[in-house]
Structures are given as structure tokens and as C-alpha cells.
Amino acid sequence: MKLTRQQLLLGVLIVIGVVRVGDWVLQSLIEGPLQERRAKAAQLQKDIRNRVKQLADLRAAGQRVEQWVQQSLPADPETARTAYRSWLLSLLRSTRMTDAVVDSGSAGIRRLRSGAVLSRSLPFTLRARGSLLQFNDFLYQFTRAGLLHQITSFNLTPVSGSTIFDVSVSIDTVLLPSRKGAELNTMPGTLPARATAAEYSAIAAQNIFAIGLNTVDPLKHTFVSAITFSDGQPLVWITDQLSDRVTRTGPGETFSTAAMSGSVVEVRAQDVVVESSGRRLLLTLGSPLSEAKAVVP
Fold it and tell me: Is 104 or 23 the better-scoring residue by pLDDT?
């Protein structure tokens, strides 16, 4: 039996219709819901990752808050004022800076909308005198301390005819109300990046303030002029030719000149061992301090 042309066309149309209906069924009843489920699963996975990240951020924030509380100054402003002022003076002494004066201002306060105290701030100013190397050591130890404080500004004014500077520093500190105890935190912080102050000594060695200043090196004009003994006790005479000043000091005593400040460790017949800025140096009678030699303790 031969199919007519109309019958063939009708058959083709029926096949196309079946394919279209099958494709619609596949898209609507199978692939559509499957893609929708895949999209929902992907969104759920994304939500889970976001929640995990949020949880990790909250835990990290909680740890930071705990660290801030530990590094905060004591919550009571007067207790914090006394403790931090003593710490600053001790820091200045350890760096051999002289003529140290530390003052503090009135405490500021920040509150939440509810009126509860969020934090207090206590400003300090210090003035001292020292070399660039000593100030460099001060900055290193200040930054290394695990305390909630920051230097807001500082000024260095050169002392005429020397490499010594008058130093003025402004500092802000933070007091958190949840901080317990009256002592400052003694654990070091995570800054600075380098491990020792010596790794920053190159900054001071460059003497970036030398342009336009009197660059006469006082180390070349200061020397041990005499070593005398009285009742068996040695006395070291240090002469500063630039100021025509003579400093007399002995073992265990401190000294301060325009060229160097430190303490006398040992006095010999022709030599003196001193400690300055964390280093031990050998000074020879009659030789300028610029020729001092390092001594291994």
C-alpha cells in the first residue's frame, strides 16, 4: 500500500509533535526540577560557606577583643596614669635618654547610645634629650610593647653644636572598662616586624636631620682625658672640647655628654669600659670617643 504525500506529511508532523511533547516533558518534568534542585544546593553550599566565614570572623573578633582587653591600660584613669607614667620613665632610662619629663592630660570618654562607657582615652606628653640612636631604641621598645597606645606626633629639635636632640612626644592610650587589675600588660606585642633594635640602627646611622645642621661630630672632640685614683677608687675624667666641659665619673656610675651617655663598667690603667645604648665600648686614655672599640661582654 502506497502512502500518499499528505499521509507522509501528516506522519512527519506527528513525529515532530511527539518530539516536541517529549522535549517539553523532559524540560518541565525532569531537567527543570533537577536544575532547580542543583541551583538550590549551590545556594545552600554558598550560604554554608558564608556562615562558616562569619563564624570564623566572629571568633577572630572575639580573640582580638580579648587581646585588646589584655593590652588595655587599667580601667581606672588615675591607676592607669600612675602605672603608664612610671613605664614611660623606665623606658627612657633604659634607652639612656636624659632630662626626662612625663605629663598627662584629662581622660576622654566614649559612650554607646545606651550611655554605657565604651572606652576611655588618656593623653601623655614626654620630653627628653638624646641621640638619634637612643630615640630609635625608644621607638623600637615603645612599638614592641603589648599596650593599647600610639604616638600621635613627635618633634626633634637639634641641640646646637652636637648630635643630641630635644625630643617631644605626644601619646594616646586606651582604657577599656572590662580591664581587670592595676598592672600594665608585660607580654610583648606583634610589632615591629624585625626581632631586635639593632636591625633598625641603620635608620639612625643615616642621620636624616643632618642637612643644614652643624655636622661637627662631638665624638671626635670628646675623649677620656685622665684616669686618677683616690683611696684606691678610680675616677674617670671625660673632656668635651666643644663645650669645654669635664665630666667626672667612676665604676657603676652614669655619665652624659653631648657625644655619648651611658655607665662605667670597668676602669683600667689606660682604658675604660662603658656601656652605652646596649653596647659595651672600650675607651682608651687620650683617644677620642670616635675611636671606641666594641667589647664582647
Answer: 104
Q: What is the average pLDDT value for the chain, to the nearest integer?
A: 81
Q: What does 5-40 look like in DSSP terms, one character per residue?
A: HHHHHHHHHHHHHHHHHHHHHIIIIIIHHHHHHHHH
Tell me the one-letter amino acid at 160.
S
Architecture of the structural domain at 77-205: 2-Layer Sandwich (3.30)
Ramachandran angles phi, psi of 251, nearest 5°: -55, 135
135 CB-side CA count, 13 A: 23
- The enclosing H or E element of 45 equals helix 32-71
pLDDT (average), residues 70-86: 92
| 218-295: in CATH 2.30.30 | yes
| Number of C-beta neighbours around residue 41 at 10 A | 10
Give the global pTM.
0.55
Neighbours of 245 (CB within 10 A): 12
Q: Is the pLDDT of residue 213 over 70?
A: no
